[in-house]
Amino acid sequence: MSRLILFLLTAAAAQAAPPEYGYRVVHVYPHNRESFTEGLEYRGGFLYESTGLEGRSTLSKVQLETGRAVQQIRLDPRYFGEGITVLDGKIFQLTYRTQIGFIYDQASLERRRTFAYPGEGWSLANDGARIYMDDGTAQIRVWDPLTLRELRRITVHDGPREIVNLNELEWVRGELYANIWQTERIARISPADGRVLGWIDLTGILPEPDREGVDVLNGIAYDSFGDRLFVTGKLWPKLFEIKVVPKGR
User: Fold this and answer.
1) Domains in the chain, ordered, with CATH?
2) What are the DSSP calls for 80-111, one per residue?
3) Which of the listed residues 23, 77, 134, 245 has the most CB atoms within 10 Å of its CB?
4) In 3D, which of 101, 97, 132 has the Cα closest to residue 114?
5) Largest alpha-carbon pair distance within the chain?
């Protein structure tokens, strides 16, 4: 292979690689250190948070500025709470391995009904018309929000490589953001074909003095009216409002 062809192939591969982003912390808020965060949403000035672990799982409406729950329910101890999404006055919540989900009234947090799905439940998000669900694989299921019937699936990929361990999801300006479990990276995903549009590297966002006893980065919430992006983690004492910036800035 000639040097010219090798150069052109290398340049094309580099050009095709999704861009890398860093972050700038805009504001730091308190976060309940007991919250094993599995799902996070921002609606109407409050955070809605689902937490996991059998016997400790909750669904809460949380005051952003203080990190305190103003409403909270506890799940039956047999359920491990997972991702949530808020749509049309309802909160949809998954559980980990019990293949049962719950639908709550957003205002009262009263449970209205249950639904079933196959496999594990990890996270939910919505675009106002469809619900997106992941199960820890590279697959994202697309559901009808009224029937919760699966319409299609997309496979998340960076070039030929499938991206597994998709965790907490959020709909942000026409894209799906997903935490990658056990990393400090967020994938920006095309909802049309699952292609990774970019990577956000959040390495070091939680200072070392705050890391004792914490678990992984997990929790993305977007304020669509204020264009604010929030991130936190399981058992983290802090929640961060960030701006995504080109890496190196």
Assistant:
1) 18-246 (2.120.10.30)
2) -EEEEEEETTEEEEEESSS-EEEEEETTT--E
3) 134
4) 101
5) 68
Contacts of 73 (CB under 8 A, 6+ apart): 58, 59, 60, 104, 109, 111
Alpha-carbon distance of 220 to 85, in angstroms, equals 11
Encode pLDDT of 188-232 as tens digits.
Answer: 999 999 999 999 999 999 999 999 999 999 999 999 999 999 999
- Residue 64: which residues within 8 A CB-CB, separation 6 or more? 29, 42, 45, 46, 47, 230, 239
User: Residue 11 pLDDT > 50, yes or no?
Assistant: no
Apex CA 223: angle with CA 85 and CA 84, to 5°?
Answer: 10
User: Hey, which residues does 244 pair with through a beta bridge?
Assistant: 23
CA distances from residue 227 to 28, 79, 142, 153, 204 in whole angstroms, order as listed: 16, 34, 25, 28, 23
Closest Cα to residue 221, out of 33, 104, 48?
48
What is the pLDDT of the chain when averaged over all its residues? 93
Cα 226 to its chain centre, rounded Å, is: 19
Can you give the three-state secondary structure of 119-140, one letter per residue? Answer: CCCCEEEECCCCEEEECCCCEE
pLDDT over 60 (residue 4): no
